[in-house]
Amino acid sequence: MTSPRQTAAMVIDNIPLLMRLLRTKFHEKRTGDLSIVQFRALVFVDANQGASLSEAAAHIGLGLPSMSKLVESMVTRELLRRDLHGVDRRRICLSLTDKGKNELDETYRHTQAYFTEKLAELTEDEQMQIIDTLNLMKKVFKLDQKKKEFLNRLKKSRSRHKSLHYQRIRTKNG
Could you give phi then psi for residue 88, rounded to 5 degrees? Predict the structure, then answer.
């Protein structure tokens, strides 16, 4: 019989190895010199077109000055586009360029192809065990809930910016 302590040890021992493998496969296919942090930024912006610099920094885990430098380098390389927000002129909206989307897609396809090849060595039942295990991990660590909470914070942040803008307009015109 397996104890929670043994299970925790297996997770702690194996997840970092899997992440290292993922990084290795990612680095094999890098077009240009896309870093893991840049890749994560592209993934975030792709899923959240129009996200602010602050939102991207919070997701990636960087401070605003570091995120600003990262975005600047990606704008220079034409991977990201920085636009002014339509309502709040102090806010920057990030979006992927076609070149950024292509680089993101190509890197993802290469990494996914490797994992697909490795997982094809397993039986269908073994593949289902992996899926079931990952779903259990999401449930135990409430990953779906954390994602929802993050997206809700993102929406509130955006609506707060709009609300402040409209309050300022009413104050000026009132």
Answer: -100, 100
